[in-house]
Amino acid sequence: MGDLKIDVSDLRSLATELRQKARRMRRRRGRRSTSAGPVARVSKIVGIGVALAVLPFLVLIRGGVFLYAVWGMGTWPSLLLAALATAGLIGGYAWVVSAWLGARAELRRLFARGAAGVACAYVVYALVFVAGANVKSDAVRAEYRAMHPLLRMASSALVLFDPGAVITDAGRTSEEYRRMGLPPREASLHYEQADGWVHALDLRTNGRWELRNFVVAMTFRALGFRTLRHVGTADHLHVSLPLPR
Predict the structure, then answer these.
(1) CA atoms within 13 A on the CB side of 15
(2) pTM of the prediction?
(3) C-alpha angle 95/96/100, rounded to 5°?
(4) Binning pLDDT at 50, 70 and 90, where does residue 65 land?
(5) Topology of domain 131-240, per CATH?
(6) What is the number of other CB atoms lying within 10 angstroms of the CB of residue 89?
(7) Are 168 and 143 a contacting pair, CB within 8 Å?
């Protein structure tokens, strides 16, 4: 027993071999992940890009609708807070991008303020302007400013993503319902409401893919509006802003 010796050289060689095998396995896994990497990276970049592009509209429109219809903050305070939050978000985008590009602090502040200014300019633009190609007639175009500002924000965003969208109706009177052969609807949100705004519009659905109409309806719902596909004088999508609770 006194002459018994333990030779650890075999154990060391075994440990070395196991480490080498582990490194080879990691390299093989790395090569497999690299081969699938470009597709995964592109998908991830596209997903992030879409999310970043949509987020400002969610903040502006969905946030404004929530403040107005749920918290009852009033038309202009709701829109103002949502617009300021959106401007801050866009300014933050510009700050991060300019920092990533290595811009100095002064330039980052300049870019952030400019981007926030562009967001505010868009809000003003959406409040006052709708292209003639996106309304059925001059009469509907004249009714645009009678629509609730949040409904105008949503309409403008729709036109950005769907340039072929057409508003076929907005404000109505009981006499207009009679001329169309329809009974006057006292609860219609096409009438001017107590807050002084029209809370509904109709969008053209004829001549458009049903999938497109469905996506538009679901988008408005996601933004906090109510939608109803029905036939009055013609098939159309009715979109309305809920009254404050």
Answers:
(1) 5
(2) 0.80
(3) 115
(4) very high
(5) Muramoyl-pentapeptide Carboxypeptidase; domain 2 (3.30.1380)
(6) 18
(7) no
